Amino acid sequence: MSTLLEQASLVLIPSGYKEDVVYSQIPTSGAGDLSFTRASNGTRINSAGLVEVCPWNLLQYSEDFTNTSIWTQDAAGTGTISVTANYGVAPNGTTTADRVQMTKGSIYTQIYQTMTVISGAQYTLSVYLKSLSGTPTITTLYNTAVAGTKTLTTEWVRYDFTFIAASSTIYPMIALYGSDSASMDVLAWGYQLNIGSTAKPYFPTTDRLNVPRLTYQNGGGGCPSLLLEKQSTNLATYSEQLDNAAWIKLNGSVTANIAVSPDGTSNADAFIPNTTSGVHALRSNLFNQSATASHSWFVKANGYTKIAVRESELVGNYATFNLATGTLISTNQTGSIQNLGNGWYRCTLVDTTTGVNAQTSIVVLPDSYTSGDPIVVNWSGDGTQGVFAWGAQVELSSYPTSYIPTTSASATRVADACFKTGISSLIGQTEGVLFVDLVWNNPIEDVVPLDITGSDGKLIWMRGIGAQFYGNGTTLIVNIGVNGAVQGTRYKIAFLYGANDFKLYRNGALIGTDTSGTFTGSFSDIALNAVINQSNLFNQVVLFKTKLTDAELIALTTI
């Protein structure tokens, strides 16, 4: 396989990224690096198998303290603040460290961002600091929950503070407190705020947009895939604060932040059925379900092992699950369960109904439950056992997408797009092979995960798990093996093209050929996940400028 890849003109194996870019392994010049856009946060499964916000650094412009639209410079009394951009050499060897000079005239001087966070959640604040004077300087990192002082040295040190957010608004800052004659002259770089009890590896940010998501499936580990998804909105508010009044507790109670959630922090809530004989459910306030919706919850057994995800106010669609065996018990619509590890499962109901009075809920069921609508199961809890729950989500979608956290309002993750223009030198103009290795996460077969285009309107599509060639963007010339995709299945697909010579190989087998389609083109652009309603995991994308042999195509596509 490595010999084959050496013949390629472009090889994308997701392993490296930064804001706006996914790096290609071939060519090494960077000419094949793909541009990336997603103008919002997103989540992924990290290498440890945990749900993680991407980018995990919640601060903007983490290396530019001169950006006064983001960083507030506040000096009380006669204090002064001066910031000089790119003054010194940072810990990464680049001249990107800013000089921060502060003098204190009465109480304090400080530089900070205003952040909206989840009250009661755990965060870690970190920054690299180095004193420019011979005498170490006192600085304070401060937010609404905790203040700490550190004595700086003349060497780079990464300082970090872990705290529980006391409110939904915090002010991560570099600050100076002390006597009236105090002053501070330091280099500062790499400011970060991340969820959790430890400082994660530093991730540089500007506006925090357009950060690719390299996700690890099946509990983490192994090689990552590039996650590309459609736009989606989580309609369920306070998705991690189930003790909030927005959630109705029917014959039960919620204890907040009592267990480690799928994101690795102690922010999962417990729903405990009481001793009343009846239905025991945790459900949302009303929302408008205007189409097919996916209701998904992260749930873990806490004594009781059977639960339901239910649309609770309109027609009562449901799916029931066994958290001990990780299986779907019964459903009157479509249900699925995903193992997240450590006893956690993501339980999903996909239902079709419309109305302004929809609700999402989890219903705790007794061990004796076998099947049927959970809303008619009356029983008495013991007031001690229950289930852990976290990350409630409702999307107007025919399948669940990655988790979208919310607070007091719904939240939207916009669509991912990954593309490269102006690379005609990397695309075979008269013949070649287009190869993709991906996991098909979309239940809709007839979508386009990848295409090659040019200024003349000609188009090569990987459509479904097949391929098509259009002569001018509208005239179909070649159509091989388009349909038959199975959701959640990995496919390795190679499409060989040339004059009167087209072949499609899939998972080691020849799917079809076409020797009648004429071929000319002027190809310069490649795009992944080119249209809406998609969700795919790209393991590898390769372009060959010349044809491969049948034996090479079999080797390339064999899983």
Detailed description of the structure:
- It is a single chain.
- This protein has 559 residues and is mostly beta strands.
- It has three domains: 2-53 and 417-557, Jelly Rolls (Sandwich); 72-195, Jelly Rolls; 242-412, Galactose-binding domain-like (Jelly Rolls).
- The protein is 2% helix and 47% strand.
- The protein contains two helices and 49 strands.
- The strands form twelve sheets. The protein has a nine-stranded antiparallel β-sheet with strand order 2-3-4-39-48-41-42-43-44, with no helix packed on it.
- A hairpin with a 4-residue loop joins β30 and β31 (327-331).
- The chain is flat.
- 46% of the residues are buried.
Break the fold down into its secondary structure elements and pairings.
Blueprint: H1 2-6, E1 10-12, E2 17-18, E3 21-22, E4 34-37, E5 42-45, E6 51-54, E7 72-75, E8 80-88, E9 97-103, E10 108-112, E11 115-116, E12 122-131, E13 138-142, E14 147-151, E15 157-164, E16 169-170, E17 173-177, E18 183-195, E19 214-215, E20 225-229, E21 232-234, E22 247-250, E23 252-259, E24 268-273, E25 277-278, E26 280-284, E27 287-289, E28 293-302, E29 306-311, E30 318-322, E31 327-331, E32 334-341, E33 344-351, E34 355-358, E35 360-365, E36 379-380, E37 386-395, E38 411-413, E39 417-420, E40 432-440, E41 450-453, E42 459-462, E43 467-470, E44 476-480, E45 489-497, E46 502-506, E47 509-514, E48 525-528, E49 535-544, H2 550-557
Antiparallel strand pairs: 1-49, 2-3, 3-4, 4-39, 5-6, 7-10, 8-9, 9-18, 10-17, 11-16, 12-15, 12-18, 13-14, 19-20, 20-49, 21-38, 22-26, 23-24, 24-37, 25-36, 26-35, 27-34, 28-33, 28-37, 29-30, 29-35, 30-31, 32-33, 39-48, 40-45, 40-49, 41-42, 41-48, 42-43, 43-44, 45-46, 46-47
